[in-house]
Amino acid sequence: MLRFEIHGENLTITDAIRNYIEEKIGKLERYFNNVPNAIAHVKVKTYQNSSTKIEVTIPLKNVTLRAEERHDDLYAGIDLINSKLERQVRKYKTRVNRKNRNRHDQEAFASLPEENEVPSLQDEEDNDDSDIEIIRSKNFSLKPMDSEEAVLQMDLLGHDFFIFTDRETDGTSIVYKRKDGKYGLIETTE
């Protein structure tokens, strides 16, 4: 059973909003054979220009489903989130079930609904059926530096992320450029 934790920022979550989110996102349960104690973390934020941002994260045993959408209409944004999550589930499900079939394991996901139950995603499914193919591989040495120097190096290279060894912790870290133009830092722990 999928449980929901819904939080609103600059917005009060009404019963109508809660019911709509639970109804739409709850439909994802049909793709799973066993979802014990799964929690869907939903964050809804409104901005001064009346646009909304919806983030949904569903951590499961072997995969974390996550989608984020900005839209002027809250309900339309929820519909788009649901479509994104459904595509993720279908893509992941196809790969997992294919691997398990080869090993004769029990399928982790339920069978897909019939064609008339779900809108056709034929073009996306054609792309999803192909195996993951790594077309390029790179090796490089990690240099000790602080996060500010790593951001400068990333900008000089024109990349969206940069991997480095943190001079203070001696651990591997990643700096990345966010959609809003600011920077993020991912630090590893042992």
Automatic annotation (TrEMBL):
Its main location: cytoplasm. Signal peptide: none annotated. It comes from the Bacteria. The keyword Kinase does not apply. Keywords: Cytoplasm, Translation regulation. The keyword Cytoplasm applies. Residues 114-129 have a biased composition (Acidic residues). Interacts with 100S ribosomes. Belongs to the HPF/YfiA ribosome-associated protein family. Long HPF subfamily. This is Ribosome hibernation promoting factor. It comes from Staphylococcus hsinchuensis.
